[in-house]
Design a protein that fits this description.
By secondary structure, the chain is an all-alpha fold. It is about 65% helix and about 0% strand. It has six helices and no strands. It is elongated, with a radius of gyration of 16 Å.
Amino acid sequence: MSEQPFRDAVEELMLERDWSQRELAAAVGVDPAHISRLLKRGSRLRATPQLLARIAGAFDLEPDHFAEYREWCVLEAVRRNPTLRERLYARVAAGGT
């Protein structure tokens, strides 16, 4: 699993496989311009969980390779579970990690 930001992790994977943005876009079925916008430094555009999973699959990895996917899973769990949300809030409010 990568702890790198999505852009850095994808750029490293592309470099390892000698892939261009166009090749990655073809592998995941999106417009190359979309990949370019996702990887552009300073861009606020974020990949959806579904796209993160497709990109991971293109590299023969599990979606949770990307920290952003793991973050999304945690946020979804907190949204669906009020008890978990309140326990986490209490811990954060108390200054815990």
